[in-house]
Specification:
By secondary structure, this protein is α/β, with parallel strands linked by helices. The chain is built from seven helices and 13 strands. The strands form two sheets. The protein has a nine-stranded mixed β-sheet. The chain has a four-stranded mixed β-sheet with strand order 5-6-8-10. This is DUF38 domain-containing protein.
Length: 241
């Protein structure tokens, strides 16, 4: 059994090799090393500098050569959507994972509420567009994961928007077999409309598919809904943990 070669690009890793990226000899070595990378994770927790973004862009050009096929089949992103997005165009992935933080920079409140009440919020349009553009480049996904994280303790309720409409479209891809919506690390609530839409699309899908939706709410345990379908037996199963 062969193991897929994995590469994790963190802020620390990129900043460490940044000075060497000016060397053509080093670039040739990286190109040879990256030639077999099939699983890529970009883990950028904070807003990065222009220098780091430029270095990441250089590395991505090696992993996704312009006008040439890439062996990368799985990409998981934590931020850096604007930098990564253009490199994925024309490259068909089998798995795509999108993760990002919900905070004052990525969401906006839709109305004012009294102190102590849960604040209704939506993901900012510029963030939604960047993520939507990435998702829309992939039409042959077999697996998709969407993860929401919070880095503060503010009480919010995340509402539906165009980004989630894009997620609903992913559920209807003929090639898709696994879909995971993970909000277990989120200290906010998810609108029931979002989860109901995911469930409705799963139930109406003509394709064999598994759906896992996890969310954590205040003063209650984690709730995970796992759904599976099997067209051979014409049945769909649901399990709530």
């Amino acid at each position: 059994m062969t193991t897929d070669l994995k590469l994790i690009l963190s802020d620390r890793y990129i900043s460490t090799i940044e000075p060497y990226l000016r060397s053509p000899h080093f670039i040739r070595k990286l190109k040879k090393l990256f030639h077999s990378v099939e699983v890529l994770t970009i883990d950028s927790e904070f807003e990065t500098s222009d220098d780091i973004k430029g270095s990441l862009n250089t590395i991505l050009n090696l992993l996704f050569p312009p006008g040439q096929p890439s062996v990368v089949k799985s990409v998981t992103l934590l931020n850096e959507f604007e930098v990564v997005g253009p490199h994925l165009k024309g490259h068909n992935l089998k798995h795509l994972g999108i993760s990002f933080y919900l905070n004052h920079e990525t969401v906006f409140r839709t109305q004012w509420v009294k102190k102590g009440q849960i604040v209704p919020v939506r993901i900012r349009l510029n963030i939604s567009r960047k993520i939507t553009e990435i998702i829309n480049t992939q039409k042959e996904l077999e697996s998709f994961t969407f993860t929401l994280i919070t880095d503060d303790s503010r009480r919010r309720r995340l509402l539906d928007n165009d980004l989630f409409q894009c997620l609903y479209n992913v559920l209807q891809l003929p090639s898709l077999r696994k879909f995971k919506f993970d909000a277990s690390q989120l200290r906010s609530q998810i609108s029931s409309v979002i989860l109901c839409n995911l469930l409705s699309l799963f139930l109406s899908s003509p394709y064999p598919l598994s759906l896992k939706a996890g969310s954590q709410y205040y003063a209650s345990p984690d709730v995970t809904l796992t759904l599976e379908s099997n067209l051979d037996r014409f049945q769909r199963k649901a399990c709530v943990k």
